[in-house]
Structure formats: C-alpha cells, structure tokens
C-alpha cells in the first residue's frame, strides 16, 4: 500500500493536528478531582435520601422490578462517582494542552470528545483571567480568550497563576498591537 493513501484506494489521509506544546499544571488533576468529588458526593447524598424515602414509604407507584432494589441506588451512584473522581481528572490532564504562537492560540480540550480550537490573535477582543475558590487554593487560574464569535472563543484552565497572568497580559498586548497595525 502506498504511503498516505487509504486501504480502499481512496485519496490521501486527511491531515492530523499535532498536540499543542504545553500541558496544564499537574495541580489541575487535584482541582478536577475535588470538583467531581463535590458533585458526586452531593449525588450520593441525594441517592441515599431517595433510597431511604422510597424504601420506607408506602408509595405504591414503584414498578415491581424496582421494588426491593432501591437500596442499590446509592451503591451505583457511589461506584460511578468513585470512577469519575479517580479516572476523569487524569484522563483530562492527558488531553488538555495549550500553545500560543505569534498569530494563534491553540487549545485541545475534552476527554470523551475532543475539541481542537485555533483562535487567531488578531481576532481576540478580550482576555480575562479567573480564579475560583479551589483554583486559588491550588495556585491555578483560568484564562478566557474572547472573540466576537462565541465559537471562536477559548478557555485555558488549569494554568499556574504566574503563567496565566503573564500569558493574559501578553495576549492582550499582542491583540492590541495587531488591531493598531490594521488601522
């Protein structure tokens, strides 16, 4: 088989995007794990409450196949939550990457589905830096790169604060310089 051609004799393979050069901070794993733990902890508490309420109630609207099995609900939610807390943050860390070149902000995010986003620096309108409570505790920050198009905007989360601050300042300056050159 010739190099660059499909096995079925079709045209060349479509070009593949390379991964952006930089990973987010390893502390992002802890940030995402804590967020998932809070959400799944709440879901587990609700599942316990629902199971206790349905088990103790005289409510007769429950389907027969579910009767006697409601007690398993907290276990199922707990197992799903434990899986999410332990696997998803590491998986996300392996995927989330970023890079800024002279003319583009390039990000790759996701875990089940992946999104590669290239935002031209010349299209940037605002650059915002955010820190939630967990991010402050872990020394992380998020940068939002906004364009006139919602789909052209990008978010870089899990960056160390000093990197985020420097990068936001640099992007805002470069976007301003490019707009001044265009006028």
In short:
The protein has 183 residues and is of the alpha+beta class.
Total number of beta strands: 7
Remind me, CATH topology of the largest domain? PH-domain like
Can you count the helices? 4
- The tally of structural domains comes to 2
- Give the fraction of residues assigned to helices: 40-55%
Q: Mean pLDDT, nearest integer?
A: 85
Order of helices and strands: EHHEEEEHEEH
Overall body shape: elongated
Radius of gyration: 23 Å
- The computed structural class is alpha+beta
User: How much beta, percentage-wise?
Assistant: 15-25%
Name the CATH class of the largest domain.
Mainly Beta
- Termini distance? 52 Å
Oligomeric composition of the shown chains = single chain
Structure notes:
The chain has 183 residues and is of the alpha+beta class. It has two domains: 22-93; 98-182, PH-domain like (Roll). The chain is built from four helices and seven strands. It has helices spanning 27-56, 73-95, 133-138, 161-182, and strands at 22-23, 97-100, 104-110, 114-120, 126-130, 140-146, 154-160. The strands form two sheets. A four-stranded antiparallel β-sheet has the order 1-2-3-4. A hairpin with a 7-residue loop joins β6 and β7. α1 (27-56) runs antiparallel to α2. The chain is elongated and about 70 Å long.
